[in-house]
Write a structure and sequence with these properties.
The structure is a homodimer.
Chain A: E1 5-8, H1 18-30, E2 34-40, H2 46-57, E3 63-69, H3 74-80, E4 85-90, H4 99-109, E5 116-120, H5 127-130, E6 137-143, H6 156-161, E7 164-168, H7 180-190, E8 195-198, H8 207-219
Parallel strand pairs in A: 2-5, 2-6, 3-4, 3-5, 6-7, 7-8
Helix pairs in contact in A: 2-8
């Protein structure tokens, strides 16, 4: 006998935006702009990872960054300091971007001539995973302090929709019960094709392998 | 001149559920059940904090736990092992609970005779802050690895709607650039009435002060 009851709450219908996303993806492919949708929890080091990535790739491709946030500009400020083109999108309280919102942002940004646009999605791993933004590829960042049991726990869907998983903050591995082999195993149970990149955005360790993967996607 | 453009995306209208929440709050008060809505990011130690809290208060009040999650039972399992009454709510992909969903969960749980029900809301700090669940009080957990600049950054709203802020994982303070004074200052800029409790759910440090606060709320 179960020690507790499980109750399924009837959910509202999610906006079906798959057609809109497919259309946007096709248009971006025609203009040779690669859109990467980057998702993570707050505090996982998304902006620092982006800054490192920009450093590595800026000489070989034209990069633009779309920062999505509820209402602040902290991340855009940091990115702008690298000299990269950046736009800050305010979602006014929305916890994710859908394809229509992404299209609005791209139009306002003006992405003609850019090889790579990284959409830094709103900082959580739940809602952004539900909505196809129209990006060519999806990536997520999981940081060591968040724990290696996360793939089985809070957000199964995001591991399924992502093509790449960055495991950030490996420099603090000694201070946490975080098992890199286990997280790899768990993540691959959710998605056998997931590419996994352990990095430290702080020290730069592992960033080359991640950038190699991203470079191949953009040139594809 | 700004180094980047800020663009406000038109958001969908949020469901207005304030009336429903007020009605639920009133009903719970009449039956002398105190509902606490507990919010946090994944990995902040919410379930461990709850387990500690249950240990301290179980002898003096009847406690029930409602775990809300997208689709897993990991947290309910842990709580059930403490011998506490627990129900697992599955939101089927929804990133938050509104008052209607909370009411469904409470009805299914059967809360008559309980002094304290803790709703462990879905694990993110964005969406749950938007929706009043009908709880008497709201609390959130911020953990040291998430950083002290968070109140200014990713989720300003949650600091405004919360009555208590638990700062967890103070045992790893030496390994992070986390300034307890700064986070207090930032959080109080958002909400001067916020009660702040630095704790380590792992070692038990600071848990008494948090439980004293909670005890006063329940008895009020």
């Amino acid at each position: 006998m179960e020690a507790y009851k499980v109750y399924e709450i009837k959910q509202s219908v999610f906006q079906v935006n798959d057609n809109e996303a497919d259309l946007l993806r096709q248009e971006l492919r025609q203009q040779h702009t690669f859109l990467l949708n980057l998702m993570s929890s707050p505090g996982s080091g998304k902006t620092t990872t982006l800054t490192r990535t920009i450093e590595k790739l800026r000489e070989e491709m034209r990069i633009g960054i779309m920062e999505a946030d509820i209402d602040s500009d902290v991340d855009a400020n940091k990115i702008a300091r690298t000299g990269t083109r950046v736009i800050q999108l305010h979602t006014g309280g929305m916890c994710h971007l859908d394809a229509g919102m992404t299209r609005q942002g791209l139009r306002e940004f003006g992405t003609e001539g850019l090889d790579l646009v990284v959409l830094e999605n709103v900082g959580n791993l739940v809602c952004p995973a539900e909505f196809d933004t129209g990006a060519a590829k999806n990536a997520m960042i999981l940081s060591v302090p968040e724990g290696h049991d996360k793939p089985l726990k809070k957000y199964p869907l995001i591991f399924q929709v992502c093509d790449a998983l960055i495991i950030n903050k490996i420099d603090v591995l000694p201070y946490f019960d975080f098992d890199l082999e286990k997280v790899t195993e768990f993540a691959h149970m959710r998605n056998p094709n997931l590419e996994i990149f352990p990095i430290s955005a702080k020290t730069g360790e592992g960033v080359d392998a991640w950038c190699d993967w991203l470079r191949r996607q953009v040139r594809n």
